[in-house]
Amino acid sequence: MVIDFTHTIDNGITSYTEDTKPKIEQISTIDKDHYEERSINIFTHTGTHIDSQRHMLKEGKYIDEYKLEDLMGPAVILDFSNINEKEITKKDLLIHIEEIKKAEFVLIKTGWQKYWCSEKYLTNYPTLTIEAAEYLSSFNLKGVGVDCISIGKSEDEMTLHKIFLEKEILIIENLNLEKIINGLFKLIVAPLKIKNSDGVPVRTFGFI
Predict the structure, then answer these.
(1) Domains in the chain and their CATH numbers?
(2) Closest by alpha carbon to 164, among 178, 174, 150, 154?
(3) In 3-state terms, the chain is what percent helix, strand and coil (to 5)?
(4) GO annotations under biological process (predicted)?
(5) pTM over 0.85
(6) What are the 10-residue block averages of pLDDT along the chain, 208 residues in total?
(7) Does residue 184 contact residue 102 with C-beta atoms inside 8 Å?
(8) Strands (E), the chain
């Protein structure tokens, strides 16, 4: 069985500003041109996407420099959708320490994907504390993912990004974790191979 953790990209999806929304336009039709084709104009951090080191680190790797094996591996989903606080602490993570030890990717479910394509999605979303991020980055991980627009709020967004990226831990944002998998499973993160890209939309899915 395969579970898709990816939001569909269209012109109306959640973006920080109107200027960064996708622009997908049909330029040919079967009736007129005998074939169908579209123009797609998107930013590198559109929809469900991955952040490479280069997103925040001047000497970091671009997306096309990662190996395929960096983009797949055993994963676990940690479900924090029932916590009342807006921050996930180191104490919260310690409850799942045995699961984290076995994983190469940790996906964090906050339940925030229910606000996808609404203004609420952009603000006041749950995030890791700096201490929790530092603790999570101490494990031998390939990637960390969240079902929010960013892994950190504006006041500590760059700090949280750098905590992971400096250790070559990829960041996956805007995941759709409405359907979750219990226990360990195989995760695939499939980005387009675009030269010198700091990030790129991905199709992310798990096998059970």
Answers:
(1) 2-9+44-207 (3.50.30.50)
(2) 150
(3) 25, 30, 45
(4) L-tryptophan catabolic process to kynurenine
(5) yes
(6) 96 86 96 96 96 95 97 97 86 96 98 93 93 98 97 87 97 95 95 96 96
(7) yes
(8) 2-4, 23-28, 37-41, 49-51, 72-79, 87-88, 105-109, 127-128, 143-146, 170-173, 185-191, 199-207
